[in-house]
Amino acid sequence: MSNTVLHDSRVLAGRQLRKTLRRPTYIVFSFIQPVIFVLLFRYVFGGAIDTGATTYVNFLMPGIIVQTAVLGALVTGLGLTEDLGSGFVDRLRSLPMAHSAVLLARTAADLVMNVFSLTVMIVVGLLAGFRPDQPAWQLGMAFLLVLGFSFVFSWISAWIGLTVRNPETAQSAGFIWVFPLTFASSAFVPTDTMPTPVRVFAEHNPVTLVIDTVRGLTTGGPDPAAPALRVLIWFTALLLIFIPLAVRALRRA
Amino acid sequence: MDTYTWPIEVEDLTVAYGRTKALDKMSLRVGAGTVTGLLGPNGAGKTTLVRVLATLMRPQRGTARVMGHNVVGDALGVRRKIGLAGQFAAVDQELTGRENLETIGRLYHLPRAEARRRATAILERFGLADVADRRAGTYSGAMRRRLDLASSLTGRPPVLLLDEPTTGLDPRSRQELWAIVDELRRDGTTVLLTTQYLEEADRLAQHIAVLDGGTVIAYGTPAVLKAGIGADILRIGLHDPADVPAARLLLAGLGTIEDPLSVRVTRPDASVEALRRLDAAGLRVSTIELARPSLDDVFLHLTGHPTIREESR
Questions:
Q1: 20 to 30 A Cα–Cα from B219, which one of A12, A159, A230, B88?
Q2: What is the pLDDT, as a whole number, of residue B295?
Q3: How high is the pLDDT of residue B306?
Q4: Alpha-carbon separation of residue B256 from B59, B224, B238, B241 (angstroms)
């Protein structure tokens, strides 16, 4: 990657983070949302769902962390539609700069924000009884994996945003694929009670694979190596598909 | 390579959205250090031409060069030469005026100190020094537009593309922006600006290209175009519509009479003279209005059809 791309990405990511920090209400709400999710699922569904040997909160936290990472990635597409609408993307495209930086900066800055909201979520989870008992290096790996997942979904979200070009449409288009992916997964309930078609979908769903890996890495249970391998294949495939699509959509924007 | 005759040179440029041709074999040359006004209604192809020249859009056919750089083969070369200010103020509301300009400066790879120095100088020049450290969200619409124009000048481009820079501005802000464009031209910047207002093109441009249906239908200096377009229009309303035929006879010597009762006047004292003649004949006038030719008049004159068209952009 050339120096120009890195330099321009840093300038634009700095711009975006600074903008975000100056929207205090936005920050507060984006931190409150994960907290509410943890508390709702932990205390509303917690008593009703049978997760066998593990407690529900230990079962839930990896799932809800991954869901938050995916929802956080939706911001990428929304932000891009905003910059398209204001003419800022046109301005950038008319500058002698690295145009790929427009997307790299956006996905990177959104990742930074996700680090914060995931941290808040983990703290709330710990307070609500989440007890990861695996070695620290595994917990670190799990955190990196979730961030990687968020990054991958940022590119999908970027492509959607640049294609639909309108914030409202981008938002609803985002939810349409995010909700089935996160709910038809092992995030909130074990997959073995689902009807066969849904269960088959859930078991091959990359969200399930990431969650199963994170569970293995944090609270033990089934060996995380097998889902981890499939996760890496998914990541690579999705990036190979959606980075070129997003770049092309930017060129046509 | 900067070998070129014209800073902006467009030849047979064609851009189609589906079946609609936004640009249809358009050709245009813009001379160094001049302001050229692209005048035309929505859908005439003004914005499309600006987007092609700003490398935001590729033409299907034809060529466009900016200071010798082809927009298709050498987009980066073009981007080093242009500044673009669009119809909207593309500034970040959460950032201060200074931060907005510094961000753009850094994207031109200026060292931090130079980006800062240049931002200060431009803010000063645009009368934004007092509000430099306030967020752009607190600016008035006109100030935001000025900041946007300022951003487009951060790279000191020799060619400036302005897409309807004054649309939506109040008259005073419009005048301020005009003064800035004048000053830029005097400093040697080549400006291509689109507008829907004849007055604006008249005031700013040394050459005007009138666009319709994606092609240039008239080109010349404002004086030459206006001579072709015709003179002021005197519209008269009479108390009694039955008097119209008599009035038409009385006003015949003042210019070309059009329906129901308006005169393309050719004499400077036409309105006074018209009133005098009507009054002497005992015809009661209810309204009288002297109007400059509008863009609609120009269009009607040049094309035989009014400006209102269905397609946009």
A1: B88
A2: 64
A3: 65
A4: 43, 20, 18, 20
- Domains by residue range for chain B, with CATH: 8-223 (3.40.50.300), 231-292 (no CATH)
pLDDT for residue B2: 57
Q: From edge to edge, which strands make up the β-sheet containing B262-265? A: B255-258, B262-265, B233-238, B285-291
Using CB atoms, pick whichever of A19, A92, A94 lies closest to residue B94: A19
Name the token pair of A87: 């003419």
Tokens 């917990």 map to which residue? Answer: A139
Contact between residue B208 and residue B267 where contact means Cβ atoms under 8 Å apart: no
Q: What are the residue ranges in chain A where pLDDT is below 70?
A: 1
Inter-chain contact A97–B108, Cβ cutoff 8 Å?
Answer: yes
**What is the secondary structure of B1-41 as a DSSP string?**
----S-SEEEEEEEEEETTEEEEEEEEEEE-TT-EEEEE--
Nearest CB to B108; choose among A15, A23, A95: A95
A103 vs chain B: nearest CA distance in angstroms?
14
Structure tokens belonging to residue A21: 């920090």
> How does pLDDT run across A182-230, given as a tens digit for each residue?
999 999 988 988 999 999 999 999 999 999 999 999 998 888 999 999 9
- A248 touching chain B per CB within 8 A: no
Q: Which residues of chain B have pLDDT under 50?
A: 309-313
> How close does chain A come to B43, measured CA to CA in Å?
19
Query: ipTM score here?
Result: 0.90
Quick: pLDDT tens for B194-218.
Answer: 998 888 998 999 999 999 999 999 9
Å between B108 CA and nearest CA of chain A: 7
Q: List, in order, residues 6 or more apart from A244 with CB less than 8 Å away.
A: none
What pLDDT shows up at residue A98?
Answer: 93
Q: Contact B56/A86, CB-based, under 8 Å?
A: no
CB distance B94–A90 less than 8 Å? no
The residue of chain A nearest to residue B99, with distances taken between CA atoms, is: A15
Give kind and range of the element (H or E) at residue B288. Answer: strand B285-291
- The reply to whether A94 touches chain B by the CB within 8 Å rule is yes
